Amino acid sequence: MKASPKNASEYRNVLAAVLHSANDSLPLVGHEKGISAAAFAGEKHVVVTTSFDGSLRLWDAQTGQQRVQLRDGDKPLSVAAFSQDGKLAVTGSPDGYLRGWNLEERRLAWSARTGQQRVASIVLNHDASMIATVSNDKTMHLWRTGESEPVVELDGVSSVRGAVAFNHDGTRLSTASSEGTRIWSIAEGAEKRFLAVKGAKALLSQFSPDGSRLATTWSDRRVRLWDSDSGLEIATLSQHAAMVNVVAFSPDGSRLVAGTRDGIVRIATRAQSGPERWSDALTLGGHTDNISSLAFSLDGSRILSASTDGSVRLWDATSGHEIAVLRGHTHSVNSAAFSTDGEQVVTASTDGSARIWTADGREEGLFRGKPQSLLVAALSPDGGRAALAARSGPAVVWDLSGRDKPVVLGESVGPVTALVFAPDGKSLVTGTVNGAVTVWDVSSGGSIATLRGHGSRIGFAGYSAKGDRIVTASFDGTARVWDASDGREHWVLRSDSRELWAAGMSTDRRRLVTGSDDGVVRLWDLESGALVRVLRGHVSAIFHAEFSPDGGRVATASLDGSVRVWDAESGKALAVFDRDEGGMRYAAFSPNGKRLVTAPVQAAARIWDAEKLSEIATLRGHTDVIQSVVFSADSSRVLTSSADGTTRTRAPCLSRGPALRPPFLAAWLSPTHGSARSCRLYIVERSPRTDGAWPLQGWENMYSSSGPSFSPA
C-alpha cells in the first residue's frame, strides 16, 4: 500500500518543504557538465563534487565559494567514491583510469589503469585502505590504496553499481554475477561462501553494518537476506514489479530499504523479538522513474531517495510518511547523502548542479552557475529605495535613482525571512530564520535596536502608521508589538496554535490578522493587544492572510486548497472559492480593493472581482511555484514571480503580458510609476558584485495597440 500523507498536518510538511526549497538557493559558478557525485568532505562545511567536465571541486558550503579545482586532463570523472572521513576521493573515467585525490592536501595523489573499459563502479572499505573497482567488461580489480597494480582480478562480476561490497571491517568482500553471489576472504584470497538462486542472476549485494547479514538482489525482482557466516538464507522479501537496483541498511541493521527502476521504494523491517523475521509491507510511492540512490540518516529515523525523475524525497523510516520533496534539480539526480552530523543533505545531478539542503528538506545551497533566489525584498514607502536579502550575506539597501551607493546592513543572525521599511523610510526591520529581529538605520547600515523574545522563524514584520511601533509574527506561535525607538516589548499576542505561518496588518495599522498551522485565523487589536475574533473554516495551515485596503474584509489562502474572504467585523465567511488540491499560496487584494489575485502552489493564478467574487482572468504560463504577487499602484497590472525563473505581468483589461527572461533574481513594479499606461519594473541581476551587493536595472513597461512590450530603461 502506498504510504502518503493522510491528513492536512502531514501534507503541510511536504508542501512547506517544497516552498522553502523554491525560495532558498545559493549560486556557485562551477561545473560545466553534469555532476557524477557529491559528498561532504572531512572539514565541516566543505562539499566535494566530481563532474563529467573532468574536474573535482571543493566548495564552502556556507558561502558557496569554490575553494579549489583539481584536474588531471579533461576525461570525465564519471564515477566516484569517498572515504568515510572525507579525506580521500577515488574517481573512475570512461578510458579505464582510476585516480585517487587527497582532499586534505588538495592534490592528485595517484592514478592507475583498470584496463581499456569504462570504470562502472568504485567501492572503498571502512578505512579506505582497499578499493574494489568493476569495469564495463565485468572485470573486478581489488587494489591497495595508492598502488598502481591490482592485488586481485576477477572476471564475470556484474558491472551494476552495488554489485561489490566490503563488510564492516574490510575482511570480506561480496561480488554478484550471473551465477550467484560470492563472499570472499580478503586475507586468504579465497571464496568462503557461494549463494545461488535457481533460475535467477545476482545483481547487487550489501552487507549489514555489523557484517552479519548480506542483502542481495536478483533478476527475479526479489531481495534476499543471508547469514554471511553460514551462507544460509534468512528471508526472501516480496517480489517487486521492476528490478531492484539499490539497497541500503539502517545504521542498526534493523531496516533495509530497496529502490526499483520504476521509482518505488520499499522498507523491510526485522521483527524486534522472537525468530528472525522480515516484513516489507511498507511501500513508498512518489518517484516516477528509476531510484538512483538511497541513504539512511545517522540515527536511522529518516531515509533519502534520489531518482532520475529529478527529485529527492525525505521519508520517515518508521511510518513511511513523506517528510519533504526536495525539488530544484532539472535532470537526473545521481546521488544523495547526509552530512556526518545528520543536519544537512547534499545532492548531485546531471543538470550540472549540486545542492545542499537542511535535513528537514529546506534547500540551503545551490552549487551551479545559476542565480541565488532572494528570500525577501521590500520597497520604501516613497518607492525610492529597495531592500534585498538573500540566503547568504547581509541585506542590501539600494537607491533606485542610482545617485547613492548601496548600503550593506550589518550581519544578521541567520538568513533574513522578513523585511519592512518604516513609514518615513529612514529605518527598516529584519527578522531572521532564528527569530532575531533587528532595527537598522538605512543611511548608515548600523543597528539601532535588537528586539529579543521570539524563538523561531520570523514570518512577518510591520510598522504602525506613525512608525512608533513594530509588529512581528513568528513560527513560535506568538505575535509581538514593540517600541520602535528602544526595542521595548509592549504586547505578546499568544494563541493556542503551535505556529503562526502568515500575518498582515490593516491599512490603518490598528489591527493584525494571523494565520496558523492549524488553519485558525485570528484578528487582533494592536493598540490593546486583545484578541478580537477567531475565524474558523480552514482545515490546514494558512499560507497568506491580509486585509482589504478599506479594512472591511480579510482574505486567507490555505494549504487545504481554498481561499476564503471574511467580513472583518462580524467574522462571517463571505466566500469560499478557487479550491486546488495542491494548496493555495496567495490571496492578494489590489490597492483599490476591487481585484483579488489567488495563486495556488501548483496551478495557474487567477484574477477575481473582489466585490462580485467572480473570475475575471486566468494567468497561465508559470511551470513552478509562484513566489510572489504584486499589483501596480493603480491596480491596472499584476506581477507574478515564480520558481520557474520567470516573471510575468498581466494587465487585466489588456492583452496578456509576455514572460520575461532577463538575467534576474527578483522583480517588482515601482508604486510611484504605476500610471495607466506605463510603470517601472525593477530587475535584480543574476550575479552579486564583488562587495556582495545585488545589481539592479530598470525596465520600462510600454503599452501599445498590440499589447505590452518590454525594453531596457
Which whole number gives the mean pLDDT?
Answer: 78
What fraction, in percent, of the residue positions are helical? Answer: under 10%
Strand residue content: over 45%
| Strand numbers in spatial order across the main sheet | 1-2-3-4
Report the total helices: 1
- Gross morphology is elongated
Secondary-structure arrangement, i.e. CATH architecture of the domain at 371-494: 7 Propeller
Secondary structural class: mainly beta
| CATH class category name of the domain at 371-494 | Mainly Beta
CATH topology of the domain at 371-494: Methylamine Dehydrogenase, Chain H
Supply Rg: 28 Å
How many strands, what sense, and barrel or not for the largest sheet? 4 strands, antiparallel
Note poorly predicted spans: 1-29, 363-374, 645-713
Distance, first to last CA: 57 Å
The CATH homologous superfamily of the domain at 371-494 corresponds to YVTN repeat-like/Quinoprotein amine dehydrogenase
Q: What's the total count of β strands?
A: 64
